[in-house]
Amino acid sequence: MNPAAMLVLSDKIYSLAGYRILKQIYCGSKTLVYRGVKEQDQTPVVIKLIRNESPTFSEIAQFRNQYTITKNLNLPGIVQPLCLENYGSGYALIMEDFGGISLKDWVRQNKLQHGITLKEFFHIAIAIASSLEELHRSRIIHKDIKPANILINLSTLEVKIIDFSIATLVPREIQDLKNPNVLEGTLAYISPEQTGRMNRGIDYRSDFYSLGITFFELLTGQLPFTNTDPMELVHAHIAKQPPTLHQINPNHPLILSAIVSKLMAKNAEDRYQSALGLKYDLETCDRQWQESGNITTFDLATKDISGGSIPILSKGTGLTQKSCTNLFPWRSWRPWRFVISLLFEAKIPYKNKFAHLGCSPLPLILLCIEMRELIILILIYV
Predict the structure, then answer these.
(1) pTM over 0.85
(2) What number is the average pLDDT over the span 258-286?
(3) All domains of the chain in start order, with CATH
(4) Which end of the chain is more exposed for a tag (fewer CB within 10 A), N or C?
């Protein structure tokens, strides 16, 4: 057995056949991450494993989750998983190694106590917005966006998102009320609805809130909420207004401060509604900064797409005819407008209403009733 391919975990030594371990790059309370090489073809890899020698079912499920969710995605903005190897009582997740370092480590190593430069920020922020747009279009909510989960290759300036252990592959989920010590995600970055105390579901706009916290930290060198008590931090996310970038550093452009504040809005409806809208505003800022070294104020979210590619159906808000109509890009086509209207006006039999369309009867839309909301699952063809 190659001694270099031995991993020390607690007081026991496990072997990971087929890989040569080079160095440890992360040691957390739940996971260990190593940089290594696949011996068969000398491919550089990153190896992530569960630190617990006897992992719980939840820990194992999270490991499988991040592999299952990302294995079929071919997106340049995420670290690609290669395989899932059996390791001890759990798994070792083998991922591509593109030579990245986390933004958290980069900021700490370079002692950027007052944040990164605007030139650096715009490159990173636009790349993250592009990656989130691709993820959300693939119906994936990351739920743990933070500097530690964003990597950058300092030579190529590639930016990629990692750690999909608690990511979700569905349009919406209801977060149950939980103890703040066991909430999913990182408490300093979670959205108000992710705390489970907002009586509403989690959709992809939760990622925008976490991204706003991340942007704030990158630009100021500090978090908007610095509470150390979990309950106080949860209360801050729900009820306290964060300071603005401009309040922390008056040198930051007012429009950039407004973008970050919009991302950190308490209500999801007040945030950006799509990563495309966010990306457009960031690119506008970047273009002005490069051309003149100044950024003038402009209207935000003019290119925002309400609803993005994932339906927004939140607990407690109900489903209205207007919100149902907004789910579909072909909503302006008269027959479909009629069908959507029909769902909310069940006074006349379907066949009689379709008769007024002057076309062949359309197959009915399949419906599923969940949490007292009508969720349109499938639109079947004419």
Answers:
(1) no
(2) 97
(3) 3-96 (3.30.200.20), 101-292 (1.10.510.10), 321-378 (no CATH)
(4) N
